[in-house]
Automatic annotation (TrEMBL):
An example Gene Ontology molecular-function term: acetate kinase activity
Cellular compartment(s): Cytoplasm
Highest taxon above the source species: Bacteria
Protein's name according to its UniProt entry: Probable butyrate kinase
Lineage of the organism: Bacteria, Bacillati, Actinomycetota, Coriobacteriia, Coriobacteriales
Keyword Transferase: yes
Species of the source: Thermophilibacter immobilis
Catalysed reactions listed for this entry: butanoate + ATP = butanoyl phosphate + ADP
Enzyme Commission no: 2.7.2.7
GO biological process assignments: acetate metabolic process
Principal EC category: transferase
One GO location term (cellular component): cytoplasm
Family listed: Belongs to the acetokinase family.
InterPro entries in alphabetical order: Aliphatic_acid_kin_short-chain, Aliphatic_acid_kinase_CS, ATPase_NBD, Butyrate_kin
């Protein structure tokens, strides 16, 4: 994708911070010319008192990787990071400005996750490059729920979502291209199946329903407990504190709590070798994923153009076969193993640089704070 008025494609550096590594990719238009997964020692990261305190350390490791490949910051047109730590926002590409940076540093949404470093790293690298543009694209805080999806049976308690929005939307765009249609004309059920599992319904370009995977919704995952009965959870709280329960929702539930590992490959292999607890946990996870797909198909009133599976676990052909067996009566099931997060970030920045998309400005105001007619 060539930039307007230029004879070359835009050079965009995408940065995706994870729990023990930071993925970095340099793109020239659609082509990835360099990528690296910069590893971080868990012991080294444990020295920092907060996620945001890791910023200088992660920045220097990225700069070292770029230096090793003789990549000059001044040769890069824009920097884009995976967003995080923000209030709920509409999907799209956002300019990294002072307000967005403030909220990301604080983790204003109450979720401490390495993704909130994405905007901070993009900003710092852009400044070092002479004040280039910095963006975030479809961060985990993307919330496009329809009104009915927000309701609960408790006054003043509403549903929100935290999902793998970046990969979900990019997978949708790519699949829509295979159908010869724009994403904005498709109805899709899209799953990201990895350490966390996102299931979402996309209607005409909007992620109109999905699960809050850090709030204890959806299927169990390798590191997350998923949905549990509220009354039983209250009993559980009689012997555990709230911090324990939050950990079960984000990093210590699912396979970790049931089997002592977050390694999905290990669990699937143990299940195949006759390990009964592993088989029960694995099959329950797949069962719950399929139930989630069914619920999202109902949210789309059965008008589903495709069921899409992305994420690292989708490399497991048995997993895909099991989901297809249970769900392909709804719509064709298509696997997109792995993730397109770096590509999605670079593409979002290029669309803005090309003038195909208007960059959004972060307001710091959640997309939903309640219904106007409530008293």
């Amino acid at each position: 994708m060539a930039g307007k008025g230029t004879e070359r494609a835009w050079r965009v550096l995408a940065v995706n911070p994870g729990s023990t590594s930071t993925k970095v990719g340099l793109f020239e238009g659609d082509a990835c010319v360099f990528s690296e997964n910069v590893s971080h020692s868990a012991a080294r990261l444990a020295e920092f008192e907060s996620i945001s305190a890791q910023l200088p350390y992660r920045r220097e490791t990225i700069l070292s990787a770029l230096d090793a490949h003789e990549i000059e910051l001044f040769s890069i047109d824009a920097f884009v990071g995976r967003g995080g730590g923000l209030v709920s926002i509409e999907g799209g590409t956002y300019v990294v400005d002072a307000l967005l940076l403030r909220d990301a540093r604080m983790g204003v949404n109450g979720v401490q996750h390495p993704a909130q470093l994405g905007s901070q790293l993009a900003h710092e690298l852009a400044e070092r490059a002479g004040g280039r543009s910095a963006f975030v694209v479809n961060p985990p805080d993307t919330d496009e729920l329809c009104d009915l999806a927000r309701m609960t049976g408790i006054r003043g308690v509403y549903r929100h979502v935290h999902l793998h929005a970046l990969n979900l939307k990019e997978t949708a765009v790519r699949h829509a291209c295979t159908l010869g249609r724009p994403y904005e004309e498709c109805n899709l059920v899209i799953c990201h199946i990895g350490g966390g599992i996102s299931i979402s319904a996309h209607r005409h370009g909007r992620m109109m329903d999905g699960y809050d995977i850090v709030g204890g919704e959806g299927p169990m995952a390798p590191t997350r407990c998923g949905a549990v009965p509220v009354v039983d959870l209250l009993d559980y709280l009689g012997e555990h504190d709230a911090a324990d329960v939050r950990a079960l929702c984000t990093r210590a539930g699912g396979f970790v709590d049931l089997l002592g590992t977050s390694d999905a490959l290990e669990v699937s292999e143990r299940a195949a070798m006759g390990d009964v607890p592993a088989r029960r946990a694995w099959d329950a996870m797949v069962y719950q994923i399929c139930k989630g797909i069914g619920s999202m198909a109902c949210a789309l009133e059965g008008r589903v153009d495709g069921i899409l599976l992305g994420g690292g676990m989708v490399r497991n052909k048995g997993l895909v076969a099991d989901i297809r067996r249970r769900c392909d009566w709804i719509a064709p099931v298509t696997a997109y193993p792995g993730e397109f997060e770096l590509e999605a970030m670079a593409a979002g920045a290029c669309r803005v640089l090309d003038g195909e998309e208007q960059a959004r400005v972060y307001t710091g105001i959640p997309v939903f704070t309640g219904f106007a007619d409530e008293v």
